[in-house]
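To close the chapter, one final illustration. This time we ask the reader to focus less on the individual chains and more on the assembly as a whole: which components sit near each other, and how the overall shape emerges from the parts.
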Amino acid sequence: MFIYEKKLQYPVKIKNPNPALAKVIISQLGGPHGELGAATRYLQQRFSMPDRRIIGMFTDIGTEELGHIEMVSAILYQLTRGLSPDAIKKAGFDTYFVDHTTGVYPQAASGVPFSTETLSVSGDVFADIHENLAAEQKARLSYDNILRLVDDPDVKDPIRFLREREIVHYQRFGDCLGIAQETFSNKKNFYQYNPAFDK
Amino acid sequence: MTDSCQALLQKIRAIDLQIIDSGLYLNANPCPEAEAFYETLIRERAALAEQYEQNTAPLTKSAAIPVSRWTETPWPWEREAD
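The assembled structure is written out below.
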């Protein structure tokens, strides 16, 4: 069961709207390395994890990612407040605006809507943990690329926070891989079998 | 899980449904009597949760003391959690 806490994990306070920036940052909501995919991926992978410690990690990280969906959405909301039709056209935001106005729709920067094809639930313990290690690196690189494109310190600050969290999550999925190897392999090989299915 | 813990968890589920349902209603329909009822439910729920968490397992991570109880007790979809 989930309950909601009425706060952002890290504050978002952006003074100047900037729809051109929203156009790229939206990828971290609904793009291939985005927070919506991350949260759903980890929370859905839990059911084939055969170790309570690994389930705990996936639960906690997946739950935190739900909070990151909200943070990225808050950034998008604040970047697209009070826009004139002229500002919308100048920023090239018109192609988004025509279908979504300034609603916060999960899509990639390229305009491709969020796809569940970007999240993997393989039912294989080692494959899923490796998937998540890669996913955290991919999210980190998207935040790095966003930071290369952003000058506004109000935007950079929460993006830097989110980038740091990807690094911490990468470390903790590394711990999960260690637990899985320690518990389910003969330790000489990194991978032997799928402990969720092959008993 | 023992029968008494199971019964306590079922009580929490029942009161949670009352809280969720009356909370949804009160979002759009202010009503002093219903608000008083809602507050009674919240207090009752807190007492039940404390009892359950002391005897069985943490319901939230912040109630996992020591924190190792978070990863030692069964997850809700495990059959042992029944």
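Residues 21-184 of chain A form a domain with the Ferritin fold (CATH 1.20.1260.10). Chain A has one domain: 21-184. With these observations in hand, you are ready for the problems at the end of the chapter.
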